[in-house]
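Entry 14. Structure prediction run on the chain below.
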Amino acid sequence: MEFSLTEEQELLQETVRGFVAKECPSPRLRELFDAGEGHDAALWTGLAEMGLAGLAVPEAFGGAGLEVLELALVAEVLGAGALPAPFFGHSLATLALALGGSEAQRMSWLPRLATGETIGSVAFAEPGEAWDPSAWRLCLDGDRLTGAKRFAPHAHLADLLVVGIAGGGLALVEPRTGGVQIERVDGLDRTRPLAHLRFEGAVAEALAQGGAAAPRVRDAGLVLLAADAFGGAWTLLEMTRAYTLVREQFGFPLAQFQAVKHQLANLATDLEPTRALWWFAAHAQDHVRDQAERSAAIAKAHVTERAVQVARGALELHGGIGFTWECDVQFWFKRALFDRALLGSPAQHRERSARLAGW
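Output returned:
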């Protein structure tokens, strides 16, 4: 069985990679990181013009009609560039509507989300590390929502929030219409800001098929985080390889020392096989539904943990200067920690995967 990317998928990645390299080189990334907004209107406009805002939106509503694998391939490239953009939350919001919205809901929102003029995001977590739909307790009373959500990505930018509600369903909220308090969180990754949300009788509309869509959207989120972490980890490996070729110790480049060669080789051989995990997990979301949930949990747990391992190794080989604000290693180190934590820890998802396997 051949399991490789098509020419169109490779072209998609190359196009996005060229955009990131041109529009967000290291000096620009540092400016945006220091600002802490996790957003640049020009970058988002550029991504939207390439069709990335509507990548998973059905063609009937103005999107590209592609699958979770294409979303993940883009997430890998954005992770490699540490691009500050609301792609993650926006993609999950569009997927939630595409999978769970009524015809009227999809007609109302998807065309605007597809162009990027409307920015979407999701709010899943609740106090107590309650990420899973079965643990949601936020109450929708008629058309009013009351309660709290935590760690919503790019919530301060969102025109539309897809919110997890009690019973494992989803609801649409327009945060700018009132009844929603947004408290920015001072998180590690300043390219992807988070917020705690308080709903105080906010107007909300349940997604018609939200109960069926919620687990699929959660699993897609796990895959996107794994892909992002993989892309960032490879960037760290390349940065570290280049650094060891020019940094000298005892009059020789670090790369000539056998211990350094071994450490880099071990990190690379630990990371590369995980590519198959998130590729298959992404593919399974649309084509192997009986394995989709477990493969997403395994990919999230394993890939993000390996990415943090690579980040720690890269920091060590940079002499620990990744802890300083001036060294670019910090961007991807913090991004790896973000990917590991959001939507649940590796331990949580390993436990889930074991339960799903009947262990």
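The chain has three domains: 7-115, 120-209, 212-356.
Filed with the rest of this week's runs.
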